[in-house]
Amino acid sequence: EEDFDGNGYNNDHWGWNAHFNVGFFTSELAYTPGTLHPNQTLIDFANVRGYVHGTHISNIIAAMGNNQYGLTGIGLDFNVKHFPIDISNTNPDTLWYPEDLIKALRYVLESRDLYNSTSGERGAYFVAVNLALSIQNYHSYSDYVVKRNEISDLINSLGQAGVLTIMAAGNYGSDITSMSILPQDIESEYIILVAATNKNGTLWSL
Questions:
Q1: Phi, psi of 155 (to 5 degrees)
Q2: Partner of 159 at 20 to 30 A CA spacing, among 42, 175, 185, 188?
Q3: pLDDT, tens digit, for every residue of 69-127?
Q4: C-alpha span between 105 and 51 (Å, rounded)
Q5: How many other CB atoms are there within 10 angstroms of residue 33's CB atom?
Q6: Average pLDDT taken over every residue of the chain
């Protein structure tokens, strides 16, 4: 294992998994629907979970044009770079844990802070975080409040460091401000919340 850029994380050349605390040290592991378990075996979430949402979202954002795969990202050919941070786990009942989202956001913040403090010699020049997820599993309401405050503080710190947080409003078809959903119920000047409509022009979430 190697911390090649001195950011405190090993093998995170192509990406990082916040749940298992391991890096993607080859591009195949970063861009295959799956992640690394601590025993270094590949867990294919396409089979284990049937869930590859982050993979196609990344392609919508950054896929190059004329790539022979029939998909062009919204970044067109502007050399968009993206870094996968996986918070998936192997629990069949829970897609994501709030603790892992916190670790993922902290990773981005530490990387950007390191970049800023070393004039770009170390760290990473992250400018935006994309969150196409929602979390509703908590031990209690007080646990939800603690996690919400911590995620909110991280998002604000990211914004002050130069990183916007962009997130999907979700597919709930109701007012998410009345629901205990993270991270959508966090208010911050550094958040861009993106809603979706169906074919009839009706909002999925308000």
A1: -65, -40
A2: 175
A3: 777 777 666 677 788 888 877 665 667 788 999 999 999 999 999 999 999 888 889 99
A4: 21
A5: 20
A6: 76
C-beta of residue 26 within 8 angstroms of C-beta of residue 38: no
Phi-psi region of 50 (alpha: psi -120 to 50; beta: other; left: phi over 0): left
pTM of the entire predicted model: 0.81
pLDDT, average across residues 132-138: 77
Q: What is the DSSP letter of 169?
A: -
Phi, psi for 167 (deg, rounded to 5)? -140, 155
Q: What share of the chain is helix, strand, coil (3-state, %, to 5)?
A: 30, 15, 55
User: Under 8 Å CB-to-CB from 68, ≥6 apart: which residues?
Assistant: none
Identity of the residue numbered 165: T
Cα distance between residue 187 and residue 178, in whole Å: 13
